[in-house]
Amino acid sequence: MPRQGHPVRVEKPTQVNACIWLLEGGGASVSCLPFLSPGTLWEVMYERRMENERTGRSKTRKPTRKGAPAGMQDRAQDRIREIVRRELLKARARNPHVSLRAFARKLRLAPSALSEILGAERRVTAKMAERILYGLGVQQDEAVPLIKACQSGAQQRRGDKVKGEGPVPVRAWDEFDVLDSHAFELIAEWHHFAIVSLLETQGAKDDPTWISQRLSISEKEVRHSLDVLEKLGMLKRTGGRLRPSGNLFKTRSEVADDAIRFSHFQNLDLARRSLENDAVDVRHFSALTVAVNLDKLEEVRKRIFAFHGEIMDLVETDPTREVYRLVVQWFPLTKGLPK
After folding, report:
1. Rg of the chain's alpha carbons, rounded to an integer?
2. How far apart are CA 23 and CA 30, in angstroms?
3. How far apart are CA 291 and CA 295, in angstroms?
4. Co-location of 115 and 154 in the same domain
């Protein structure tokens, strides 16, 4: 890392392998630091930007889109960045290992997009503002004006409404990319999603041999999966290497029942294999039997989904080394009362 007291300039902050120029004396040397996290990159870049603004060397702002007055848009953009920075620092105060990737996933954003937003390299759209502000629990009276200020001219002319009913679930279904039935059938087998998660772990390689050894599947299956995942946009090439795109996906309600059932049967088989082969200290199995008020079933589904998000936020902190699958079953033991 740069020694204390040396000015730092970050080039291409959205790349993990960033080039940091260390300005020493009258000369400059370049040091590529592949271990520098995106979060650290942003912090350095943010401090540099603040220094530039104080000294009058800040870059000319990008033109605002027609919509709210330019000054209002700029103030809204600055306020949203300030909120995100504050909440990121709070999260790191609670857990120093929180990565920018994990924080971005919480907001349903790609890590590169969040890094660009924090560095004032990308403007926040109204839809992104909704994700960010409600995802961070910002109150309605502050969130709505900021979201409206981020609307485009066309959105304002149409009178598009913004979410103003208060905070929404961090992982709301409408923030997921939709897989049609054909796409889901292509990746219904468990190892497709496992490969995406595996490529997020520390020291991951997109080498079929390495992946097949880690997941105990054939290299042929790995090569086929990498090809399909890249075509579906779940993986993308960065610097010649395949990496997760950062997007999350859901299926439409009309997805074929056979594909859904096949996926669930695989979950049960994976659980059985873990129960037979994995040590107790690396797995957890539990069950609960309760009497149920049927009026509460929809609320149960919502809470289970929220629980998924809480687990993701808890465990997706650097360093990530292994891939797990969380499966929740909720089903009736009794049948309807006889008439």
Report:
1. 23
2. 9
3. 12
4. yes
Q: What is the pLDDT of residue 6?
A: 42
Instruction: Measure the CA–CA gap between 238 and 16, rounded to whole angstroms.
Output: 10
Q: Does residue 336 sit within a domain?
A: no
Q: Does 211 lie in the same domain as 198?
A: yes
* Contacts of 324 by beta carbon, 8 Å cutoff, 6+ apart: 315
Which backbone phi and psi does 243 adopt, to 5 degrees? -140, 155
Amino acid making up residue 306: A
Residues 16 and 44 in one domain: yes
Q: Within this chain, do residues 187 and 309 fall inside the same structural domain, yes or no? A: yes
What token pair was written down for 45? 């870049």
**CA 61 to centroid of chain Cα atoms:** 27
CATH assignment of the domain containing 286:
1.10.10.10
Contacts of 138 (CB under 8 A, 6+ apart): 83, 146, 167
Beta 8-11 vs 18-24: how paired, if at all?
A: antiparallel
Rounded distance, CA 52 to CA 9, Å? Answer: 11
**What range defines the domain where residue 102 resides?**
70-172
Q: How far apart are CA 193 and CA 184, in angstroms?
A: 11
| Residue count (the chain) | 339
Amino acid at 13: P
List per-block mean pLDDT (blocks of 10 residues) for the chain, which spans 339 residues. Answer: 42 38 33 43 53 51 50 86 90 83 82 85 86 84 86 65 48 53 80 92 92 95 93 84 76 61 91 94 94 92 84 80 94 81
The residue behind tokens 């219904």 is 188
Into how many domains does the chain fold?
A: 3
Residue 256: exposed, middle, or buried by beta-carbon count in 10 A (0-12, 13-18, 19+)? Answer: middle
**What pLDDT score was predicted for residue 173?**
41
Residue pair 325/209 in contact (Cβ under 8 Å)? The answer is: no
What does pTM read for this prediction? Answer: 0.53
Residue keyed to tokens 């995802």: 135
Distance of alpha carbon 153 from the chain centroid: 29
Q: Look at residue 121 in the predicted model and tell me its pLDDT.
A: 86
Q: Same domain, yes or no, for 255 and 275? A: yes
